[in-house]
Structures are given as structure tokens and as C-alpha cells.
Amino acid sequence: METLLEQIESGKLWQFPGGIHPPEQKFVSNQIGIGNLPLPEYLVLPLKQHIGANGQLLVNKGEHVLKGQVLTRPGTNWSLPIHAPTSGTIADIKPMPSAHPSAMPELSIILTPDGEETWCPLTSRESIEGLDSKALIDILHHAGIAGMGGAGFPTYVKADSAKQIEYLVVNGVECEPYITADDMLMREHAKEIISGIEVMMSILSPQYTLVGIEDNKPQAIEAMRTAANHNDKILIRAIPTKYPSGGEKQLIKVLTSKEVPSGGIPADVGVLVQNVGTLYAVSEAVYKGKPLIERVVTVTGNTIHTPQNVWALLGSEVKHLLHSQGFTPVEDQRVIMGGPMMGFTLPTVRIPVIKTTNCILAPDNQELAVAGQEQACIRCSACADACPQTLLPQQLQWFAKGQEYEKLEEYNLFDCIECGACSYVCPSEIPLVQYYRVAKAEIREQKLEKVKAERAKERFEARKARLEREQEDRQNRHKRPARTAPAKDKVKVSEALERVKSKRPEQSAVQAAIERAKAKKADDDTSTLEPDNSAVALERAKRKEQARKYKEEKAQSSDDSAPKDAVAAAIARAKAKKAAKAAQETNVPEQKDSKKAAVAAAIARAKAKKAGQSEVSDAEAAASSDKDPRKAAVASAIARAKAKKIAQGNDQADETAVQDSDAADPRKAAVAAAIARAKAKKAAKAEEEAQPHSDKPAEQTDAEPEDPRKAAVAAAIARAKAKKAAKTAEEAQSHSGEPVEQTDAEPEDPRKAAVAAAIARAKAKKAAKTAEEAQSHSDEPAEQADAEPADPRKAAVAAAIARAKAKKAAKAAEEAQSHSDEPAEQADVEPEDPRKAAVAAAIARAKAKKAAKAAEEAQSHSDEPAEQADVEPEDPRKAAVADAIARAKAKKAAKEAEQQTVLSGNTKEANTLTDSETAQLSPENKRKAAIKAAVERAKAKKQAQEQEGNDLS
Amino acid sequence: MTLIYALVAIGALALVFGLILGYAAIKYRVESNPIVEQLDAVLPQTQCGQCGYPGCRPYAEAIANGDEVNKCPPGGEATVKKLADLMGVEAKPLAGGEEAEPVKKVAYIREDECIGCTKCIQACPVDAIVGATRQMHTVIADECTGCDLCVEPCPVDCIDMIPVAETKQSWKWQINAIPVKQLD
């Protein structure tokens, strides 16, 4: 048994399955030698003329280039340079129709020849000795050599095979009808081809080089044999003529009996195939230094006068080739690039010759008939017999038509070499290859899309991960400050434990407090947020201690009568306020720490209230902590509000409270008195007897408020209400006149008086409102509308309007007329800081609304939300103000609710007035306001009841 | 007596095979629910959200849980068919009446109109837009899935969806053969 090598040496040939014998038509163009063409007017050089990427442009428009000059620089990824086929000027660089069935535009260099044919300097060499394979491959690369048989695979990539090549197969078969380019090249340039083969052999060092030439080219075979005579490693083999023996896989099978595996390349079986044209170009590049700038093209067909092979410069237009050879177009002329089996009809003849163009076929209609109508497959299996790849064309056809792409792949569609044998033999004229081509393109696209989808998915997931990470980072950033807190917390816990311990031996309590204060100070030092408030902390600690003591005491004295307690508490509070004011005056410079002080003060106050009996110490604490006048003001507001509650708690408590407080401190007393008066008025309205009480408080108001701003705020609010009230009822009018009178009598201090008056008026209004509520809710919107404006200026305007109304009301009241001007004037004098007041009022109102909304959701729990809404605000001062106001209203509302029946008589007038007011409001506001008001009222009542209950208990 | 033997024998066999089956069920358990993976693989991964789910995988999961298969306009009828095959349901026409073969598009930012607001960057599900605040943005066309999501947020409407240009690679043969006829 002979080995394969011996068989090959002995000249044995094998057969591939299938194949056809179409008319050769070679004689048409191989009668005369390879001709030369005149220089065309211009050359169109697509940057990409092969498989792979195109190079990078090196020339610009208008540049003059020499023949053989490189025009693009190759990059990676199988790219090849292109060269100027002749000397000339670059006319343009733009997309031009490409040599592709679609003739899709591709970026091309347009070169206008100058006719000089001036070569750029070439490096020719006598032999390749001293050049290693890498240097040779580099030469091939930079000469821009691509496979010239058809596919245009870059030769340097093939030559750089990592696999051991046993046989170099040279393809001189040229099996396709009409084409004689390789035939003529072999006849005329056999020597160069052999030297090209020897270059490739030195690169690849194969055992043998097998040159396959179909036996229908005896002259070429002879020429090649002669040329290769000196080298016994080059075996020239004449193979039987059969289409498509020129196919790479078929030729390998014929010459070596090896079969390239499905989806593989010849190198997988140790074989490398090169076209003779490529090898000629290799020889030219290596020995003469000429890059690939021209090639042999067969121009043939019945419409060509002199069918011939020509040396065509790359970039010559097909039109130029045709006309040079005498082209007489017929009707429906087709021009085919490539052979009749595998070529494609050109959409236009203005398409350039590129590195892979081996034939231009211009047949007339007899020569190559136009495809007939496709008929049904008769399942003759002729295609399967003809298929050189032993595929099942018929099956593939069905699947292709049904777009069953997976099935197509199962049936190895991609092993189809698109030779067209099946189409050729098909009696039903089914364009099988076309179906395969379409299907292949479709599958390729789907695969590409799949890859893209996969990448999109990856990117999408990467993005998601990134976003999550970022969010986490953000959260961590927010957490970081909190993370430092635990240390503080621990300190606090230990402090708490200490405190618990210290409680038993009470002597050590103060000490513990001091310690705590120190600990806090230390904390503060580390955090460096508040530089020095240790003193305050200390005081706070003391206060807490006292509060604790008081609690214990209170627990014991809880059986005391409620009213007395309340009075005492009121007195204590009053003192605290006084102290606060004093502190305010002295400690103004210390306001830096105002917020802390405020908080401390708030706490202190809260405790102070509880510790009604340990007043003295409380007052001191408050004094030390209340460094901020504004805070103090807030505190006083709250105090007042509470005082009122207490007053409500028992009818006569107000009088006593006033008197008590008088004795203690005239200012406080004044405050209390003012409150008392307000209530008195209400009471008066309810029952006429209440009047006498109102006079006294008015007198006391002289001593009152040193804080003009607060007063202003309170006054503003009060005034707004006062006006309305004035309008409401006849009785209300008569009462409102009295306060006015009282204000006249007072005024050693106009401001104080104003405040008092304002408060009085406010209550009057409320009373009026309740009356209104009893009948209809229409006036409330109006009130709230007044209260609403967020803009301080508006508020001011509203206040102004309100005042104006107040005056009117005053006029209405016969007695009140003369006095009414004075309060108005005073009101003008008052507001040293009207804007602030307005803002405060606005905020208070906003909170009230919030509370109202919360109440809507859970009316039964309405007290809590309202309280919470008050607690929420960042600024404790404001909250306090709001709180005070809210409470005040709640109480009044409650009282009024009780008195509704009494006042109901006045409602008629009130309605008429309020209607006019509401008319000014938009319906939306009205409704909203009405709802809010209703809710508020509900809450107020509850609160009032609860508070009353609390006070009593 | 024979009846008892038979019953005992059958019972013993049943017990043995039951044990074998039970063991096999534990030992050769198939992990996870591969149908979601298969569905996800069929979906076009544009992450466009046109199905109403925030991405392709969520939709795949929804289909596995019984949602309709015809909610993927970028996938077209082909995807609907594949999904229907996988789920063993009847393929329906695309919901919303989109054309069967969707045109592939990529976003294009008219760069001289871009104000650099980064809104489109935040909208892009595949991070295919590059740019920075107050800097011009641009689309990486190769990464763009044509999902349209960047068009809406653009405050100056400088993003166009341009149909992907056909290249030689994506060009498809038309069914027209070059017939070769033998002459006498």
C-alpha cells in the first residue's frame, strides 16, 4: 500500500463528487495575448478591495502621487494598503459605486492620471536570500496583495499560517466558462509565477507544491512545466476538466485526496491554496518591488469586438475596458463581473476593476439567456448529484424558502461554495444559489444581531449594577455621619446609667449632671460643631435635676386642688418669662448659640411648667438659657396661651391669676390680664355681665411687652380677626367698641395697648366666627383667605385691608367711632418689623393647614396630628408661635361652640358681610378654606376639651 | 395463596422502584427554570421597555408567568413566533399594530444643538451615549439598540432616530439568477 505522499508523487489524482461540464467558451478570449489598455481618464480606487478592513488614508485631495505610491496605511485586522496605479493627481476622495452586486457607494480615491507613468522609487532584489519569512510576509503585506482568484483574502494573512503546511496548492484550474485570465498569465508569465511559488515555498516550506491546471489549457501546462523544470518540489498536475474543480476544497480533494472539514480552512489539513495570479503578484512585489496595481482581466462576450485578456490598472472603470475592446451593447445588455456561474450582473458599468476582478463578461441575449420563470421542484435530485459539496440542495431550498434558518444550518448551508452547479442542472430553473445566498445573508445578520443583543444585555446589566452601586454609595454617604453617632449614644447610655445610680443618693445627682455636661462638652469638642456651650449644658443638667425632684414632689402633692396649682404655675411661668426678657437684654451678644439656647429653653420651659411649685429655680434656669430675645418671645407666647387655658379651666381663675401675677410682676400680670380680658370679652358677649372685667386688664397692659416684634406679630394676627369680628354682630360691635375705649384710657405705652386691643379684637372676631359657623361655613374661607398669603407683602396688604375694615366696623358702632382711629394709628406705629410678623403669621397659618389636613385623614385622632405638625418644623421658635396660635384658636372655638346658641341671633348680618368677602375669593380657595376650617374647628374643640380636662386634673 | 404472593411481589417491586425514582428525582434534579433563559435569548435585548417591563429579562420572566408573547415591537413577528413556539401558544399579531418588520434605527444627536444636560445619558439603558455636563453628547452607534428612550427626555429635541444605513455586509441578495444556457 502506497502512502499518500507516494501516491501524490506518482501523480495520482482523486475525484470530488458532483460537478458539471458547462460549455467552456474559453476559446473566445484566449486566441490573442494579454493586451494593454490606454490610460483611462480617471481611476476610481476603493479603499477596500478585499476581505478585511481598509487602511487609513495617507493622501489628500489635490495631492500629486507617483505610480506605485502607497495611498493608505494598513492597520490591524487584515487590512491592506492600496497604491496609485499610475502617476497623477488625486481629484477627489468620496464614496463611489463599488464592485459589489449592490454597487453600494464606498469611499474611493479618484485619481486623474498625468500620463507620465512616473514610478516611485522601487526596491528590486535579485534573490530572496537573506530575507526571512517575516520580511517576506511584510513585503507581501505592504504590496497590498490579496487573493486574486475571487474572494480576495489578504495573502500575507494566509502566508503567516501558524499551522504546518504540507502541500502548497497552486490554483491554475480556472474552471469557470469564458475566463482565461490565469490561462494567459501562465502562458506568458510562467517564470514569474514559478518564482512567486518559490517565494511562498520559502515562507511556508511545504513538502511539495502542487500546481493544478485543467487539461483544457495545454499551453499553460506546458509553459508551467518548462518554468518549473528546475525545481522538483513543484509538481505540475493536469487535472480533468470539470466544474468546479477550481474551488479550493475541490482542488485539494483532487490533488491530495484530503477533505477540508466543514467550517474549517485548508490549513486545517496542512494545505494552502494560492492562485497563480496572486503568485505572479508576489513575484513582482518581491523581486521588482512593484505593489499590486494591475491585473489581468478577461474581457469577453459576444458583444465585445475583440474579446481578449488585458492588463487593467486597478481602478479602471468597467466601461473603459469594454470600450477599449469594442463594445456594442444589445438590448437589455447585461455586464457580468466574474464568470457566468459565480459572477454577478453589474448594476452600472461605471464600476472600477478591483483586485479580485478576473473577468468582465458582456454576453448578448442568445449567449446567456435571461432566466426563465421559476417552476416547481420536480424532485429530480439532479442538484444533489451535481453538488460538489455533497449537500442536499433541494432540502436547502425548501428550508430557505420557509426561512427555517436552524434547519439550514443543520443541513450545512455554510459549506455551500455557491458554485451554481445545482442551479445550472435544475430543469425547473430554480435559482437555488440565490436562495442560499439570501438565506446565508439572513443567518449572518441574525448572528450579528445576536452578538449585538448579547452585548446590549451585558451593557444593560453592567449599567444596572453600576446604578445600584452608586445608590448604595449615596446611602452610605448619608449614613456616615450617623455611624459616628453610636459613640455618643454610648456615652449617653452610660450617662443614663450614672444618672440612675445617682438618683438614689440624691446628693450626687448634681455631680452626675456636671459630669454629664462635661461628657457632652467633650462630644462637642470632638465634633467641633458647637464651640462652647458647656455652661448651658451644665445649667440644663441642673434644671433637669430640679425637674426630677419636682416630679417626685408633685407626685406627693397631686391631691392639691387643681385651680391653685394652675395659678401657681401661671405665676411661675410669668416669672420665667420676665427672667427671659432680662436675659435677653443682657445676653444679646451671646446669640451665636441661639438655636441651642432655644432648644434648651424650650425644654426648660416644659419642665418649668410641670415644676410649678419650684418656681424660683425654674426662673433662674430659664433666665440663664434664654439668651435669644426671639425665643423668649416664643416662650412668652406659649405661656400666654397656657395662661388662657388655665383661665378657661375655671371661670374666675383669670381674675385671680391677674391679680396674683400683678403682685409678682406687673408685666407678666399684664400679659395674663390681656388674656383674661380677651376671655372676658367673649364671656361678655355670651353674657353681658362679663364687661366689667375687661377694663381692669386694659389698664394693666401698660406695663407689658418690651418685645415689639412679638407684640407686632400677635397684634397683626389679632387685628385681622378683630376687623371681622367687628363686622359680625350687633352685640359683637358693642363689645368691640369697649375694648377700643379701653385702649384710649390706657396708653402710656401705645404698643402695649395696641397688643391688648388686638387680642381683644381677635377674640371678638372668633366669637363672631363661631356664630357664623353655626349657620353656614361661608365666612371661614374668607378668613382663611386673609390668613393664607405666603408673601409677607401680601400679608401686610391683607393686614392693611383688615385694618381698614376694622375702622369701618368701628364707625358702624356709634359709640366706637371717635376712638376707632386711635387703634388704627397705633397699629401703624406698632409694627417695627411688619415683615417678620407677616412671615411668622404665614408660617403659623401654613402649619395650621397642615394640621387640618392631617385631621381630615383621621378626625378622631385629630389632636395628635395637629400636635405633630407643630412639633415638626425645623425652627422651634416658629413652631412655638404656631402652637400658641393654634391652641388659642382651639380654645376659643371650643368656647364659642358652647355659646353658639347664644350668638346665633347675630349670624344674619355676619353672613351678609362674609358673603361680600368671599366673593373676592376664587371658588377653589373657598372650598379649601371651608374644609380646612371645618377640620380645624373639630380639632380645636377636641383639644379644648382635653386641655380643659387636663387643667382641671 | 397465589394471590397473596402476587400482591407481595408486586408491592415489593413497587416499593423498590419507588425508592429508585425518588432517589433519582433528588439526585438528577434540574436546576432553575431554563424557559426564562430561553425566552430572554430570543428577545432582542434592546431594553426599550416597549413591552411595559423594565428590560428584556423582566419581560421574559413575565412571559414565563403567562404574559402575552406579542409585546415586543423591536423583535417583530419573528420574535413573536419564536416566543409562541417556546411557550407552546398561538402566535398573535404584534400588540399595538406595529409593522411586522421593524426598521432598525440608531439614535443620532445633532451635536451643535446639544446643550449637555445629560438627560439622555441617564435614559440610555445600555450606556451608549457619551458626554458630560455642559459638554456635547454623542451616541456610540455600534452600541445603540435603537430603543427610543433617549428621545423623550431631550429638552431641546436634538435626538433623531435614524434608520441604520445598509452596508455591503448587511446587503442581501435579491432572487435574480444569472442563467447559463447551453447553446447548440
From TrEMBL, chain A:
Entries under InterPro entries matching the protein: 4Fe4S_Fe-S-bd (IPR017896), 4Fe4S_Fe_S_CS (IPR017900), Ion_transpt_RnfC/RsxC (IPR010208), Nuo51_FMN-bd (IPR011538), Nuo51_FMN-bd_sf (IPR037225), RnfC_N (IPR026902)
Q: How does it sit in the membrane?
A: Peripheral membrane protein
* Protein's cellular compartments: Cell inner membrane
Compositional bias per record (Low complexity), positions renumbered to this chain = 564-573, 614-624
Just give the chief location class: membrane
Q: Which UniProt keywords apply?
A: 4Fe-4S, Cell inner membrane, Cell membrane, Electron transport, Iron, Iron-sulfur, Membrane, Metal-binding, Repeat, Translocase, Transport
Which amino acid positions bind [4Fe-4S] cluster 2, per UniProt?
387, 416, 419, 422
| EC number from the UniProt entry | 7.-.-.-
Task: Kindly list the cofactors needed.
Answer: [4Fe-4S] cluster
Q: Where is the composition biased (Basic and acidic residues)?
A: 465-475, 486-506, 515-524, 539-563, 684-699, 769-780, 811-822, 853-864
| Molecular function terms, GO-annotated | 4 iron, 4 sulfur cluster binding; electron transfer activity; metal ion binding
Family matches, as PROSITE patterns:
4FE4S_FER_1, 4FE4S_FER_2
Ranges where the 4Fe-4S ferredoxin-type domain occurs = 368-397, 407-436
Gene Ontology biological process terms in this record: electron transport chain
- Which HAMAP family does the UniProt record give? RsxC_RnfC (MF_00461)
Report the PANTHER family cross-referenced here: ION-TRANSLOCATING OXIDOREDUCTASE COMPLEX SUBUNIT C
- Give the family this protein belongs to, as stated in its UniProt record: Belongs to the 4Fe4S bacterial-type ferredoxin family. RnfC subfamily.
Describe, as the record does, how this protein assembles with itself and its partners: The complex is composed of six subunits: RnfA, RnfB, RnfC, RnfD, RnfE and RnfG.
This protein is called: Ion-translocating oxidoreductase complex subunit C
Automatic annotation (TrEMBL), chain B:
Name a single GO cellular component.
plasma membrane
* Signal peptide (from-to): none
Query: Which residue windows are transmembrane per the record?
Result: 6-26
| Protein's name according to its UniProt entry | Ion-translocating oxidoreductase complex subunit B
Residue ranges of every copy of the 4Fe-4S domain listed in the record: 31-89
HAMAP family for this protein:
RsxB_RnfB
- Report the principal subcellular site: membrane
Give UniProt keywords alphabetically: 4Fe-4S, Cell inner membrane, Cell membrane, Electron transport, Iron, Iron-sulfur, Membrane, Metal-binding, Repeat, Translocase, Transmembrane, Transmembrane helix, Transport
Pfam families listed in its UniProt record: Fer4_21, FeS
* GO BP, sorted A to Z: electron transport chain
**What species is this protein from?**
Pseudoalteromonas luteoviolacea NCIMB 1942
Q: Where is this region: Hydrophobic?
A: 1-25
E.C. numbers: 7.-.-.-
How this chain assembles, per its entry, is:
The complex is composed of six subunits: RnfA, RnfB, RnfC, RnfD, RnfE and RnfG.
Query: Which residues are listed for [4Fe-4S] cluster 1 binding in this entry?
Result: 48, 51, 56, 72
Key word Endoplasmic reticulum present in the record? no
